[in-house]
Amino acid sequence: MTSRDAGRLWLVRVLAPLTCWAAMAGLAPQPAAMADPSAPIVGVAGKCVDVQWSGTANGTTVWLWDCNGTNAQNWAGVGHQGTLRAFGKCLDVAGGSHRDGTRVQLWECNGTDAQSWRPENGRLINTGSGKCLDTSGGAQTGTPLQIRSCADATTQTWAQRGRPEGGGTVAAGTVAAGTAAKKGVATWAFPPGRDGIRDVGAAWYHDWSTSNSDVPASAEFVPMIWGAAFVNDTELATAQRSGRTLLGFNEPDLPQQANMSVEHALDLWPRLQNTGMRLGSPAVAFGADTPGGWLDRFLAGARDRGLRVDFIALHWYGSDFGDDAANHLMQYVRAVHERYRLPIWITEFGLIDFSQGTPRHPSPQQLVTFINKATAALQATPYVERYAWFALPATGEHAPHGLYRDNGTATEAGAAYRAAGRS
């Protein structure tokens, strides 16, 4: 959905209440790891230890990347000697080597010293080699991590997110900045756009395009290839310059939107994949969990063709404005995750009833109640990496559900969304 078509008729499913929001599906069943708090590990230039493109295969590169709050940067075991784990696998020195410059990787946990790490004076020392986790002498995003003889160097200094760089022993614990980094907004250009993004505490945003030139802000911009007409060299190159993650087609299942057949989308997908960016699935308007639905057929085709999809992008709009609205959202999110076992981004969500043709909106209090409950659930659900409210502007036809007015003041919904993820 975009600002041009909020009045379209939309099918919205009414789902049963959620019974369990926080099942950590997709992780290896290791009781000690599951009970161990996860935390980002921050190094030189304030960047994080990251699993490349959220891969889970043995041998996946571990590198330095801009901190973004995703599960690819959440490591269990931080703060005491032992393994460091992401996605249920271990930070591993390739081949168990002791040589300077040996890369580190993600590997199935095997109990060897190549996977044992000791925090000491702000460094992470591999106990098998006695050498330190190091960023290859650089601070650039995408720098692969390695082991190297320990030295008094910023490239070997690590800290829990939220603590000063080099500020002592790495420690485990809850990291508010990491969970807040889930929160984003969908927006288009309007006068207080930059200030609204900052004030609401959004860690990321998108505007359905490949460039943030119309809505520049300090938060992370995530580009999108909206539809078939945008699959060209110019737009793809712009997307590569604009971000590290790429959102796929916008509601290809609707004639009013990208309006693409599954086969056409699959034929074009290699162009998106060739950007080398992390890829979100096409975001269907509804029925992402439906066997034989648009998304189901797309993902089946992607598997058959050997194409890559790194996470599922979802849209959800609820027509039930009662106390169970947040349950309906989370039941849908859970059903999609259980079907595809991929991380989830909710790139548009809100309460708007399109079933009568003319949009019907909740009261301000109903909206606040939904935001409070839904964001708490999204924050607590490990497989939900990010979510974005539709929409930041509370102007014109979007005044009943937007977050910020033209004069820059927050609506009641805006104040509630601003508080999300900060406790």
Q: What features would you describe in this structure?
A:
The structure is a single chain. The protein has two domains: 38-160, Trefoil (Acidic Fibroblast Growth Factor, subunit A); 176-419, Glycosidases (TIM Barrel). The chain has helices at residues 31-35, 176-180, 193-199, 233-242, 262-273, 294-305, 325-340, 364-380, 412-419; strands at residues 38-39, 41-42, 48-51, 60-65, 75-76, 85-86, 89-93, 104-107, 117-120, 123-126, 131-134, 146-148, 159-160, 183-186, 204-206, 220-221, 245-247, 278-280, 312-318, 344-351, 384-390. A six-stranded parallel beta sheet has the order 16-15-14-21-20-19, with helices on one face. Strands 3-4-8-7-6 form a five-stranded antiparallel beta sheet, with no helix packed on it. The protein is 22% helix and 19% strand. α5 (262-273) packs across α6 (294-305), α7 packs parallel to α8 and α8 (364-380) packs parallel to α9. The chain is globular and about 65 Å long. With 423 residues, it is of the alpha/beta class. The longest helix is centred in the last third of the chain and has 17 residues, at 364-380. Residues 2-35 and 162-179 have low confidence and may be disordered. A hairpin with a 2-residue loop joins β9 (117-120) and β10. It starts with 30 loop residues before the first helix and ends with a helix. This is RNA polymerase subunit sigma-24. It comes from Micromonospora endophytica. InterPro entries: ASL1, Asl1_glyco_hydro_catalytic, GH, Ricin_B-like_lectins, Ricin_B_lectin. It holds the Pfam family Ricin_B_lectin.
